[in-house]
Write a structure and sequence with these properties.
The structure holds 2 protein chains of 2 kinds. By secondary structure, chain A is of the alpha+beta class. Chain A has 20 helices and 4 strands. The two termini of chain B are 16 Å apart. Classes of the chains: A alpha+beta, B mainly alpha.
Chain lengths: 515, 74
Amino acid sequence: MTSTKEIRKVILASSLGTLIEWYDFYIFGSLATVIASQFFPKTDPTAALLSTLGTFAAGFVVRPFGALVFGRIGDLIGRKYTFLLTLILMGTSTFAIGLIPGYDSIGFAAPIIILLLRLVQGLALGGEYGGAATYVAEHAPPGRRGYFTSWIQTTATLGLFVSLAVILLTRHLLDPDPEVSIQKFNAWGWRIPFLVSIILVIVSVYIRLRMKESPLFARLKSEGKTSRNPIRESFAQRANLKLVLLALFGATMGQGVVWYTGQFYAQTFIENACKIDFDQSRTILIWAILFATPFFIVFGGWSDRAGRKRIMLIGMLLAIATYRLLFGTLLQISDTGHRKELVQQKEVTTTLNPVAGQSYALRARTSISRFDDGLLLRETTRDTLFLPDGRASLKADTRSSKVLPASGYWKMVGIVFIMILYVTMVYGPIAAFLVELFPTRIRYTSMSLPYHIGNGVFGGLTPFIATLLTTIYVGDKLVGLYYPILIAGLSLIVGLLYIRPTVERDPLNESLAVD
Amino acid sequence: MNSVRRFLGLVWILLGPAALYYLVSTAVREISHKPFTETKVQWIVFIGVSLPIAAGLVLFGYYALRGEYDRDRA
């Protein structure tokens, strides 16, 4: 049995690497707008197409594919070298993204290279999680797997936290003047978060190299009992395929939408529907993550006693029951309708920039309104003005952003905290649940695919489908929530009816895959 | 409860093609509304990924209908 000191090392080696992989994956998503302007100019339709492919293919296609490729290698060769390989692939591709010259310098080669590197990132992420979760679980003593694997479960959220923090810090530290700092960040500073990743990767590779192979897999290998064809055994043998389908529809599908709603759609909603400004919408998420992260350990550890199924399904149920209320409260907190505007303090500035050689000018009108409780509303309207007759043409582009007073800000932190608490309930125990569902010889392959379809496809689609629904049914700003509510509801029914409680299963049962 | 599990198997079998139909009809509507290459590519990716998932749901329903997820079975 692995000693406590040794298992701490195992957790550190696994979690640090997985955290870095999530960080690497998220910074690309968080900096998508800057990257698009550098590599995928909208004036070039092929570059724009490559951008779309990079956004959608990396998350939805390549992640499950990476789960199959690296899951197979992990079940054939071993966990240690496989998740070492995924870490190196992720680290080098992320570092390389930070080095690639922009479209202006090397033209069409730039978006192609970036697309390929993004696909490598998706592939590596698909292989990493299953390896780390399996590696830790196979070291953990029976009855403590929920607790020990929950450390791996913190990494996805902490990876997002670190990526947001590094981006915000870099964005504000490049120059004493905030405006100039943001300009520098958009020009070249965005590369820093990609480049610093390599230092973290080197440290993590060094730590992982010193680790031994998982004891369960090493024993299987020494006895010559490893699988010869893990993909066929996982998905062509009925007994195991049944478990893969059950894991997907009864657990990871619902967990994926709860996760993406709490951590990603919430931020999109706060920024786009509530119109909260860039920095506040991100720091709200940062605080909520910071307060909620310890609960991954709480619920992971608790699942060792109360059962994985119960905690995950209660998390889904709470999310289904309260999402509309929580998101509705976010709208209410940012609503200016019930506030009193301090009209005498309103500031309006208009700038007119004539275009050389043309009979029109670009007009920008900025108004700053203050409200009695301290809320600040900035609205900027841009349009084109024909100089001879002073007539405005084209539809004016109006953007608004609000800065919340402290009370509203912390209320929003509290609401997002509740949503991430649901994430900790559904996500904290899931690694232990998945590793205990499949036998050692095909565990890496079998658990990785439902995990990445549940999270990458069902979860990853959440912001897109939710936003799409709001454009179809424009009258209801909360209509986007029907997607996660419906998917989590289906998963809840399947999980409740078909998944057997942990106590009825023999954890790490070796007989389940035998048809 | 086993009879509920089996009956719902039929629901899962029907839900797979129904979800796919909804997805394809939404894709057709969205592409005709915004006939850009990006829109087409993203919907092709979604439908391509959803096909095996819908097939998986049908298979899951089939197993449930046959009683393979019944509680008294191993």
